[in-house]
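A.,

Following up on our hallway conversation. Structure tokens first:
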């Protein structure tokens, strides 16, 4: 997607509808700085407000992502291209977040071992020793909780029986037997219990 082209198109449609940046932002419940960033190609509209923006500018999402008005001849091709592009962007974002899961998990584990080591060998005062043990344990628990939440909410799990891709509950992920990011869970669609792999896109 060409951000500069999209930005110019948003500005053109906004002016054609008689909106200032501030007026458009107010109608969308955002700041005028966000609108300015779109129009100067520093960012794209968030997916959660794209439909509202398109309704106000009297365009559709494909036209917004193309940065131009579309006729029926190239509408389908552009729609497919945008879906592919958005899927690639979702996959890249989810891959980055899942990498962060490993970093946070490792930091929590490292903090735990450092607390245990320091408490056992670096201090002699029993209060400091207890404090370091508690701190190390809290780091492990906090890191594990954040890492597990990322694994649960980023991407989807795919049922091998019906190929349903879904986001499970935190409880289902926590109690599921697993190896790596493959967990044995019950599919909400077909009800089969099986080992389900993590996938990045729907």
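Then the amino acids I'd put at each of the 202 positions:
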């Amino acid at each position: 997607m060409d951000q500069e082209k999209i930005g110019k198109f948003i500005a053109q449609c906004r002016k054609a509808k008689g909106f200032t940046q501030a007026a458009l932002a107010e109608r969308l419940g955002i700041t005028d700085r966000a609108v300015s960033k779109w129009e100067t190609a520093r960012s794209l509209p968030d997916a959660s407000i794209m439909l509202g923006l398109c309704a106000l500018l009297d365009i559709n999402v494909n036209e917004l992502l193309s940065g131009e008005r579309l006729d029926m001849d190239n509408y389908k091709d552009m729609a497919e291209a945008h879906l592919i592009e958005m899927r690639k962007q979702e996959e890249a974002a989810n891959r980055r977040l899942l990498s962060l899961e490993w970093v946070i998990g490792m930091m929590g584990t490292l903090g735990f071992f450092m607390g245990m080591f320091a408490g056992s060998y670096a201090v002699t005062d029993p209060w400091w020793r207890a404090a370091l043990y508690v701190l190390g344990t809290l780091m492990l628990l906090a890191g594990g909780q954040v890492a597990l939440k990322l694994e649960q909410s980023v991407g989807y799990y795919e049922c091998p029986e019906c190929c349903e891709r879904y986001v499970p509950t935190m409880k289902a992920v926590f109690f599921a037997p697993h190896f790596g990011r493959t967990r044995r869970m019950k599919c909400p669609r077909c009800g089969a219990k099986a080992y389900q792999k993590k996938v990045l896109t729907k």
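Residues 86-152 form one domain. Curious whether your intuition agrees with the design.

B.
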